[in-house]
Amino acid sequence: MKYINAHNILPKDIIKVIQEYVDGEYLYIPRREEEQKRWGERSGSREALKRRNIEIYDKYSKGAKVMELSEEYYLSDKSIRRIISDQKKIMLKVSGDP
Prior knowledge:
This protein has helices spanning 12-21, 45-61, 66-73, 77-95. The protein contains four helices and no strands. It is mostly helical. Residues 12-90 form the Mor transcription activator domain.
């Protein structure tokens, strides 16, 4: 995120009102709620992790051992087990099983 000089984009009367509250300090103005993105949506990290987790679950389903997956993906066995568990739940929801 880069800083923008308020004088370049805001009317002078708005700047004066803001200066009554914050004078010469940095001010963060958050996105409108409907414009906010979840973590990783902008960079693609969220989608990459989703694909990785599906891949891990697929390999596990085809017989890969937790420790093998742990070494391959540089994750703890606890993380691999969590991913497998989460993916199992997702697959159950998709298939419609209770």
